[in-house]
């Protein structure tokens, strides 16, 4: 497995990371035994970056990863944890505010360490920033945890260029986790250039646009309560039909490259720079093997031109999140 270093100060990680969210939340029912087997298969294949959040499955995801890592050497794994999103007892998300103040950082980190069964987190990051809490307060509080040895690197998630600059002026930032795919290229204008200027790496999520760009999505797929795609504009009605036509165009390119649609979508993100590490949301070993196959896909100039033709910048129908969620996102300001 090739490696990439996250920014000027971040850790060196596998060229593809595994995002574990779908093993506990938001993408329908998952099988716990298969989830653990998938994490083990990823580690065996050389994937060392595992991304989670304390609110994924309301603690379930961290407990799952903790269980999977029990038989493995802790130093072989780079664990990235997001914190701050609030949940309600029915499993929904509380959409106002986020627990990212100084007191919350220590409290939430304490629970995370215990659930993961570890004494440190490699990258700790607020899932979202919120206007009432300055990013300097959040980053400053995590910096104290770095000083105390509980955290190795500080990351951010879905922040805009200005917030990134303020954060980086407070403490070195290893990476920014943000959505980036053939269907979501908004970071190219200001955020990616700022990250590069500041020496901040990028861990890209949504590289398959939540399964839409995987080549496996079908309009017949039934969605359960709390599946993210029930409220994602890109998965609704005519938007979905239009987006699946783009996937068909990409399928044509994939055939000429000798790869699957998902592999081309992942390889495209990886091709955007050595400072970018795609996270894949594989929930079983089959999908994982397909995703990791992307590391063997080299896209030449002709391939990239044909991909661009199949899915031009801005071609997606529907926003990457529902409007009420985009409204509160720092990266969308
Ligand atoms: N910072 C943030 O705000 C944020 C937000 C969302 C996610 N994330 C992180 O990013 C990770 C990845 O999530 P994502 O939304 O970016 O997922 P994604 O990779 O865009 O999509 C994952 C979905 O694609 C489907 N899929 C089909 N073929 C696949 C293949 N070959 N490989 C992988 N998945 C395939 C999976 O469903 P089936 O298994 O049902 O086919 C899964 O539901 C998460 O686990 C989380 O760690 C971060």
Helix and strand topology:
Elements: E1 3-5, E2 12-14, E3 17-19, H1 32-44, E4 49-53, H2 60-69, E5 78-83, E6 86-87, E7 93-94, H3 102-116, E8 121-126, H4 135-147, E9 151-157, H5 161-170, E10 175-179, H6 191-198, E11 201-205, H7 237-257, H8 261-270, E12 276-280, H9 285-292, H10 301-310, H11 323-326
Parallel strand pairs: 3-4, 3-12, 4-5, 5-8, 8-9, 9-10, 10-11, 11-12
Antiparallel strand pairs: 1-2, 6-7
The structure holds NADP nicotinamide-adenine-dinucleotide phosphate.
NADP nicotinamide-adenine-dinucleotide phosphate (NAP) is lined by residues 19-22, 27, 51, 82, 127, 157-158, 177, 205-211, 214, 216, 262, 279-283, 287, 290-291.
Please, could you describe this protein's structure?
- With 333 residues, the chain is of the alpha/beta class.
- The protein contains 11 helices and 12 strands.
- The chain has helices spanning 32-44, 60-69, 102-116, 135-147, 161-170, 191-198, 237-257, 261-270, 285-292, 301-310, 323-326, and strands at 3-5, 12-14, 17-19, 49-53, 78-83, 86-87, 93-94, 121-126, 151-157, 175-179, 201-205, 276-280.
- Strands 3-4-5-8-9-10-11-12 form an 8-stranded parallel barrel, surrounded by 5 helices.
- Strand 8, helix 4 (135-147) and strand 9 (151-157) form a beta-alpha-beta unit.
- NADP nicotinamide-adenine-dinucleotide phosphate binds at residues 19-22, 27, 51, 82, 127, 157-158, 177, 205-211, 214, 216, 262, 279-283, 287, 290-291.
Number of strands: 12
How far from one another are the termini?
A: 37 Å
What is the strand content? 15-25%
Strand arrangement within the widest β-sheet reads: 3-4-5-8-9-10-11-12
Q: What's the helix-strand series?
A: EEEHEHEEEHEHEHEHEHHEHHH
- Identify the quaternary structure here: single chain
């Amino acid at each position: 497995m090739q490696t990439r270093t996250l920014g000027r100060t971040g850790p060196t990680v596998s060229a593809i990371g595994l995002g574990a969210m779908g093993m506990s939340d938001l993408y329908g029912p998952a099988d716990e035994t298969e989830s653990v087997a998938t994490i083990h298969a990823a580690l065996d294949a050389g994937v060392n970056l595992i991304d989670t959040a304390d609110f994924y499955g309301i603690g379930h995801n961290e407990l799952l990863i903790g269980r999977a890592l029990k038989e493995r050497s802790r130093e072989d794994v780079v664990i990235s944890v997001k914190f701050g999103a609030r949940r309600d007892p029915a499993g929904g998300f509380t959409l106002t505010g986020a627990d990212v103040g100084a007191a919350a950082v220590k409290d939430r980190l304490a629970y995370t360490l215990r659930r993961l069964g570890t004494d440190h987190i490699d990258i700790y990051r607020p899932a979202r920033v919120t206007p009432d809490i300055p990013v300097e307060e959040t980053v400053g509080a995590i910096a104290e945890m770095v000083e105390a040895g509980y955290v190795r690197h500080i990351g951010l998630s879905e922040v805009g260029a200005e917030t990134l600059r303020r954060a980086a002026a407070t403490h070195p930032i290893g990476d920014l986790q943000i959505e980036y795919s053939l269907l979501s290229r908004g970071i190219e204008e200001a955020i990616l250039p700022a990250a590069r200027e500041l020496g901040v790496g990028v861990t890209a999520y949504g590289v398959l646009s939540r399964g839409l760009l995987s080549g496996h999505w079908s309009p017949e797929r039934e969605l359960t309560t709390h599946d993210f795609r029930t409220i994602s504009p890109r998965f609704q009605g005519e938007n979905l039909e239009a987006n699946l036509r783009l996937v068909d165009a990409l399928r044509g390119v994939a055939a000429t490259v000798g790869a699957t649609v998902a592999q081309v979508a992942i390889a495209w993100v990886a091709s955007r720079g050595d400072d970018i590490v795609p996270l894949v949301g594989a929930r079983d070993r089959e999908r994982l093997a397909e995703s990791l196959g992307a590391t063997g896909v080299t896209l030449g100039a002709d391939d990239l031109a044909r991909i661009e033709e199949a899915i031009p910048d801005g071609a997606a129908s529907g926003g990457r999140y529902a409007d009420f969620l985009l409204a509160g996102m720092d990266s969308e300001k």
